Amino acid sequence: MLEFITKLFGRDNGSKNVAKERLRLVLVHDRASISPQMLESLKLDLIQVISNYMIIDEANLEVNLDSSGSTVALVANIPVKGMKRNAGDA
Amino acid sequence: MGEVIVVTSGKGGVGKTTSTANMGTGLAAMGYKVALIDTDIGLRNLDVVLGLENRIVFDIVDVVNGNCRLRQALIKDKRFDGLHLLPAAQTKDKTAVTPDQMRDLCAELKNEFDYVIIDCPAGIEQGFRNAIAGAEKAVVVTTPEVSAVRDADRIIGLLEAAELREPKLIINRLRPKMVKQGDMMGIDDIIDILAVDLLGIIPEDEMIVITTNRGEAVVLDQHSRSGQAYRNIVRRILGEEVPIINLDESTGFFKKIKKIIGLG
Asked: Residue ranges of the alpha helices (H) in B30-169?
C-alpha cells in the first residue's frame, strides 16, 4: 500500500534516478578519458597478480571507475573461490 | 562592437537551430541588429526554420571564396529589418570553410551587428571547430536525456579547451510533469552534473512544432510557455536578471495532500 502511495505521488522510484546514475558513471569514464582497451589490460594484469595468491572467478570479475564528489576511484569486485596453499612462500 | 555567440550541443536534434532562430528573432524584436550564421554546411536548416528558404541567392561558401560580397549573401528577415541570415551552402561539405575564414567573417559582422549568433552543426569535427572559431561566448543546448547531457559534458570540455569559458546552458524539451513523477531529470540534476550556469529552460510545447511548420519563431507567440521561456532567455542575454519560470503544474489540492502525508 505504501509502495502504491509513493508511486502515485512519485518519489525516488522513478526512472530519473536510473538515468542520473547511468549518466554519472558514463561521465566518470568520459572525463577520465580512459580507453576500454586500457581498462581491459589493467584487468588482465590484476588477474595475473591476484592469481599468485588466490583462486578467483575471472568470469565475474568487474573493474570500473566510480566517483564520489570530486574524487575518482577504481573499484574492483573480484570474487574469490579459494586461497592458494603456498601463497607468499616463495 | 557586437558580440559573437555560438549555439552548440554535440548531439543532434536537441534544438540548436530552433534556439538560434528564437534568440535571434527575440533580440531583433527588441530592436537589436542581429546576424545569424548557419555553419551546418551540407545540411542547412536555419533558413527553413526562419521561413527564408526561398530567398537564398548566395551562401557562406560564396562569401569566403569571394564569389560575392558579404552584404549580398545576407538575407533580410520578413518581419524585422534588424535580423539577417547568412545561410550555409547545401551542396558543399564542412571543409569548404576554415576556422581562419570564420574568424575573419565574425570580425567583419561584429562591426555592423549588435549580436552575431552562430548555429553550430552536430558533432565535434571540423564543422564544430569552424563554428566556435570566431565566437566569444557559447550557449550549450541539451535535453533531459542521458545521451544529450553526456554529449553536452563533452562539448563543454572542448569549449573550455578552446578558451570559450563559462558556457551557458539551455535545457530544452523539459516535461515538468515527468520531472515531478520522478521519470525525467530536472533542472537541478542536470546543472549539478554539468556544473555550468543556466541560461534558460524550454518546456516541451506543441507551439514550437506549429510555429516552426510555418517558418515563424515561437518567441513572438505571446500565449505559449515556450515563447515566454525564449523571451526570458533573450532578456538574460541582454544582462537582465530574470527568474526561471515556475513550470510546476500541480494543483494546490495535490500539494496539500502530499504535505499531509509527508511526501511534499
From this structure: 46-49, 60-64, 70-73, 99-112, 126-133, 146-161
The residue written with cell numbers 564542412 in the block is B94
- Show the cell assigned to B170: 539551455
Residue found under cell 533531459? B144
pLDDT tops 90 at residue A65: no
Domain total for chain A? 1
Res B35 pLDDT > 70: yes
ipTM over 0.90: no
Report yes or no on A48 lying in a domain: yes
Report DSSP state, residue B124: S
Mutation site for B-interface testing, chosen from A2, A6, A9 by largest number of B Cβ within 10 Å:
A9
Whether B193 and A14 lie within 8 Å, measured CB to CB: no
Residue A87 pLDDT: 62
CATH of the domain at B237: 3.40.50.300
